[in-house]
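Tutorial, part two.
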Amino acid sequence: MNTPLLEIQHISKRFGSVVALNDISMTVQSGEVMCLLGDNGAGKSTLIKILSGVHQQDEGRYLVEGKEVHFRSPRDALKAGIATVYQDLSMIPLMSIARNFFLGAEPTRGWGPFQRFDVQRAHRVTGEELAKMGIYVRDTAQPVGTLSGGERQSVAIARAVYFGARVLILDEPTAALGVKEAGIVLRYIAQARARGVAVIFITHNPHHAYPIGDRFTLLNRGRGYGTFTKAEISREELVEMMAGGEELEELSFELAEFARSDARLAQAAEAFQAEVQELHTTQKQEKKE
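Running the prediction step on this input gives:
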């Protein structure tokens, strides 16, 4: 079997007395989409920050191409070809698509103090790189804020691939998008996979993960609940494991009990109101007498 491009072994992370991650292991191969699923509080954000160099694990090993690494900053992760696209995208809405594409790494022309931003090259390269990913925009000079949410996510993905990402970590890229926009993003994730990029797709939505994922790792309260290939788990089973089969049954029972008690409460309230009305009527009659 090929050496994984990225691997974590028995990773744990604590913040004081809080255990954010406990004994998490995962591998990702080139040209693969690994979906990391979990609800809020599952530990996804902490794991992202360890993979991207923001945090360091307390226990366990982090390997890239079989060699152990110790990232001290996101810059270290980027140098190793590990790029993270966060939900906020770090884009400036009023700047052009091309300026956002090269933000912080602008191409220049000229010498020494006479260097200036190479506008023509920036627009040409941006258009070419977006087209390679199957992304077509009307004009790369238009403000990036005029694009839809899905299109902005796609530009961020293309930017990361252009600047040498071998591992692309996507933090809830479809969370705030409608069905159509989410579909756009999933299509461009497939494009990145086709170019040999290893994609870690973090999401709480199994309906978005299942169509694009090759393998699925589930997190719950900082613990790993297994890794499955698409052949090993159906969409329905993935949804059930995300929610927790026993928890769903308990919730269903609680809702049924609440519905019954709610009906009883409604009947009791009606009876109470009838008694109050009868009391008011009696008091009025007594006053008249």
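The chain has a mean pLDDT of 85. In part three we will examine how such features are distributed along the chain.
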